[in-house]
Amino acid sequence: MKLRSFKPLGAVLAAGLISLSAATGVARAADSTQPIVIPIHNWSSQIVMAYVLGGMFESMGNNVEYVPADSQAVYESIRNGDVTISHEVWQSTFGKSFYNAMQKGGVIDAGTHSATTLEEMGVPNWVIEQNLCPGLPNWEALADCHENFTTADSGGKGRWLEGPQSWHGDLMPERLEALGLADKWTVKFAGGADALWTELASAKKEGRGTIVFNWTPNFTDADGFTFIEFPEYYEGCRKSDGGDGKCGSPKGWLKKAANYKFPRTHPAAYTAFSRVDFSTKQIGEMAALVDTDKMDHKDAAKKWLADNEGVWQPWVK
Amino acid sequence: MPELLKQRKSLQFLLLIIIFALLCLIIPQSDNNWLWRLPPLLKELPGIINGSVDYLMFEWWPIEVYDAELDDYEQKPLVREFTRSVSSVILFMIELIREILLGGVKTIVAFTSWDWATENQWARWPALPWTVVTAGAALLGYSLGGIRLALLSGLSLIYIAVFGQWEPSMQTLSFVLIAAPVSILLGLTFGVWAYKSQVVENVLNPLLNIAQIMPHFCYLIPVMVFYGIGDHAGAIATIIFATPPMVRLTLLGLKKVAPEVVEAGLMNGCNNRQLLTRVLIPTARRDILIGVNQVIMQCLAMVVIASLIGAKGLGNELLIALNRLRIGLALEIGVCIVLIAIVLDRMSLAWANKQTDYFSSQSFTERHRNLLWFLAIFVVGVVLAYAGRFIFKDGFNYLYLIPHNKGISTAEFWQAGVDWIWDTFFYTLKGFNEWLITQVLIPVKNAYLSMPVVATFTLAMGTGFIVGGVRSALIVGGFLLFIALTEWWDRALITSYLVSVAVVISGTIGVIVGTLCAQKQSTSRFILTMCDTFQTFPSFIYLIPVMMLFGVTDTSVLIAIVVYSTIPATRYTVEGLRSVPASLHDAGTMAGVNRWQRLKSIELPISFPHMALGINQTVVFALSMVIIGALIGTDDLGQLILKSLSDREGVGNGLVLGFCVAFIGLAIDQILRTWANQRKQMLGMT
Amino acid sequence: MSSTTDSARTDAPVIQCESVYKIFGNNAKRLLKQANGMVDAAEFEKAGCIVGVNNASFEVYAGEILIIMGLSGSGKSTLLRCISRLTDATDGKVFIEGENIMSMRNRQLINLRRNKMGMVFQSFALLPHKTVVENIAFPLQVKGVSTKESMQQAREMIDLVSLTGRENYFPRELSGGQQQRVGIARSLAIRPDIWFLDEPFSALDPLIRKEMQDEFLRLQGVLGKTILFVTHDFDEALRLADRIAIMKDGVIEQLDTPANIVLNPATEYVRKFTEDVPREKVLKINSVMEPVDRNLALANATVKDTAVLEDVAELILNADNPLGVVDDNGSLIGMVRSSHIINVLFGARSDQSQA
Fold first, then answer.
1. Topology at the third CATH level for domain B452-682
2. Is B319–A42 a contact, with Cβ atoms under 8 angstroms apart?
3. Does pLDDT of A23 surpass 50?
4. Alpha-carbon distance A14 to B314, whole Å?
5. B470 and chain C in contact, CB less than 8 A
6. Is the CATH number of domain B167-326 3.40.50.740?
7. Can you give the pTM of this predicted structure?
8. Residue A257: is its pLDDT beyond 80?
9. Mutation target vs B (from A26, A28, A48, A70; most B CBs, 10 A cutoff)
């Protein structure tokens, strides 16, 4: 008896479930309400852009969440779905981590910004102004000015302060070798970006020469920074790609990455994200709001969104 | 001669050194010579570990899981589902506390769904006004420890609020308030378990050693793979780091409980649970509380590292500030971290020491006085916050939540201070720096690298043998063998070079400062507080000024290590000297010794074993800092650990590298601890 | 080798031990089985075992104070712990009010301890984090008595051991004697029938010790517990005991009343203890009295049978005639003669020293 009386209830439940799933099926056209997880790294333009993108997604009715993450380790998290997107994938710094994760599966390429990046060895402008290495930015000038760039532990050679070895492996030592500069110059790997900026700051105070790895767009642009002009890059010129290694860095791309499920769970947001395209100038503006105008990152993003409706409104439509 | 050799350890050492020197001279430097470097037979190990982790996480035992987002069933591995459910529980608890403090929607979502919360935008949990939290903390402080604790906690929170670090501080607090109790509970559980079972103790001991010495970076990637990214991952990494000292101290404390007290508990009719919770743990309280103190310190020391895998709050703000070289701002954030640590520590201490008064007959209002006060504070705070909406027109309600970075800041002042240091000391230090690098560091480093592997083994195992016999020699040898068979022996030598120089400097400073401070009660207390402060103060902050002054060089790395590793050397020296029994002092005085003689012939020899354990801890601290050294720029194991964050085989590389670092520490630990124990036994101090 | 007990007792013993053995070591059980009850300490030691208690059998009756006396390492504390089952005896039976404690389940054991037993420890074993009153209330709270009720009872105990006014002190703030008063109060809090005391006064100064012994006798006078008391102090044993068991190397050498032990030491070992004992302080009239001889005239004065010799010796020695001995009811049960007293006090000793 009892069982029978349950039957109609079961039918109602089943019907309810079906209609519910039908409803969600219809709702599939819209984005899921699960939050989109945007990573926050430790440099200004990236953080402002994170809040800018967050603001865009929110204007589309999406929920957004920000999570601090290491800029190298984040690709593993995107792969696992713990983080949804990454909006600043620098070619030479993060290219390796990005492709590693893509190869393992779970990360998709969500397009490229029109901003090109340059990541190269260079000197702060005062080095040129004080003529510490006559002939710069041409690389050939390096042949006879290394004495101005020595440090206590460089063994009499001039020192290049390269980023952490995790960024591009032994690229710079190989380049020195290939260009025949290895007997005059040596490479020191810094532990992180902080170390690079500290080196710039302390060299500036002391007025001594320094050659450091740097990139643009970056906040150091404001102080004036000149990249050394090495022989032009071409496909396959690097030692690791089988070339002779006598070449500088290419103009790098700046990509966007996303978790493979993102297009399916948030189709509208994904479409907007894939349309997002910042120029070098725009990224510079975002960084400047924080670095020069000393604004808080969130406020900077708000201001940027308010000032540039014409830029981002078409993406979210 | 052989008879003499058996008795005199100094002669044995001399002989060992001669053999060592001969080996160094004889063996030629060549890549194919096994006596020079062992072949990297363990080269494949990282790959294997990586493969197994991948298999475990992504393939082993798949189960069907319904994904509401995709409206589809997906194959998901069991382990991953399990670890992720652990994650979500921890995350829920963190968010719960966080949203009580700062407001939000996650807790509501946890009970409903994102769909519901999106549709019902009114369903947002409001934050507690900062005035309420601050006054509440002061009240809590008052009820636990009187007016002093009330002032400490109240003023600390006012500092945090006024300097515009309220939001990140509360985020950090909410994460520490989960990580610390979990660590304490886990520590207690394992400590008790080890107390009850010798087998468990034997298994736990090496694990604890490894967990304590292994640089925290090594398990960031595994934690991330297993538990995902976010506050929960940060909390889990923190728990792994903070639990071992708690286990240790719990076990130590329990072992010290007099057997008669246990018997008394039994005869009073305690069952097992009562015996544990009401007799054993309270009686072992002194050591357990030191454990709690350590847990809190370790938790806040991990704040910055934890932010690398998603913990929100002060750590993250600190990294961002440092990346823009805003040292002043970073310093203010650092002070917030230290303040939170001290307030939590003092509160937990006061709570544990609290007494109840059973006899005063209290009226309802008296008994619930604190609650009533809090209600009053709450009402006033809310009214103020509401009024604030009309006072502050520019959108920031300073009586509700002081927005991040909208408080006052003394950053400029500190920045000027750093500039002043630079202007004043740079040129003096530059000469010193160059001398140190060219005359000391580079020669030492080269000396380390020019040791043939056989010579290193002879020296290490020989020392082990002289100190602790065959057993010690084999243990030390085993640890070294693991490292020698990886491809990173040279890097391990560089790490050892940095650590040994740092330990010599730290040990010297620590013993001297500790000895001087231990002469008086007041200076002892002062220096121990300083130790606490430096232990929680994020080392990242002084990296920048140090790098400014000393450049991206080994000197900077060394200073970073020394600042941190001097802490245990100092602490143990002070503790060791202070624990010399008063009767011995009197005996000395009656024998007519002067102060220096007393120190030299009574206090130092008695406290020497304890100080040796301090040196042991110095080694451990120094090793755990190699990763910080890597952030400046080194070419040792630390650099590769940092690199493993982006490696394809990051999990395996990171772990194996971590083991290498840990094994260096364990080898030294074996020798020092054996020696200290023998010495203690000789002095009848066990 | 145990001696006679007062077999006159017909009521059931409160505590009863039957061939209790405690042997420390890995294969103690197996070795014991092989030895078949005949344990030789030296042989066991060769096999890596240490004999703690060797074949102990005795009874303790309601309201009696039995003192186990022995030097350190004699196994007295171990025996006490076997009886309270703080350690498990290797073999034998221990009955508490007729129930074998060795076969009790943990729950039963806890119940027994919560309701029937109290124990005092040499090092006081107070809980350092609890105040005086909390320490005393602890056994009650463990039992599940409400806070209010347990505090009430603890206060009564505090009054009983004269610590009124120090309820909220911590143990570290008290002197040794005061701490042991707390220990005593705690052991009595649940109003146990059986009271174990493990060298309770050994850690105290001699003066305090004397005071505490008096206190103990006073308490026992009021409470009338069944007591098992361990000490290494023979004087203490003589002073407090109804009966004494003297232990050596795990064996009970002699178990008897203080007077009998002093007068008739069963072994050489026991004799050594008794040699220097001032007998007048130990012996009571009932142990030296003779049956009433109707032919002799008794003096006018009488002495009580439980009086200690020392207190009445002068009276007896000064009397010309034997004195009558009376019991509590005042009825005549014997007589003492001065010549006999002199013989007991001095004569026997010279015999022994010659022997």
1. MetI-like fold (1.10.3720)
2. yes
3. no
4. 49
5. no
6. no
7. 0.83
8. yes
9. A70
